[in-house]
Amino acid sequence: MYEPIRTKSVHAMADPGDFPHRSREEELDIQLAGHLAALLAVTDELGMGEVGDRIADQVARLRGTPPARHSGRTDTPALALHRRAHALAGRALVVAASRADTAAAILAAEQMDAHTAAITAATTPAAPARLVGAL
Fold it and tell me: 78-98 vs 102-123: helix axis angle to the nearest 10?
């Protein structure tokens, strides 16, 4: 009565060999490189060249090619950039720790500390000057 179906159903499961799969390590490498590249953009915008070079080295190691560097500056206040960099360094630290990448984890932790210090310095009111010998 009905003609049999001669083509594959669109609802059939895909053949496992039809598309490439990445390992967990490869996925973590991609995530870490992305977080570090974003941190690099903010670091370059803050004008922190030496630190930016260290971050760029880590991105190049993970991706196999050197990253694009940020060349222009925006009107974003330094405090907002430090907060963004702190958050990005935190994300990079979590991924670096989960993939046991000591070099990237140390770099991310150092950046978190540096940006925490910058945020604290910018938000803490300066102590009033005291004269020597004054009570």
Answer: 150
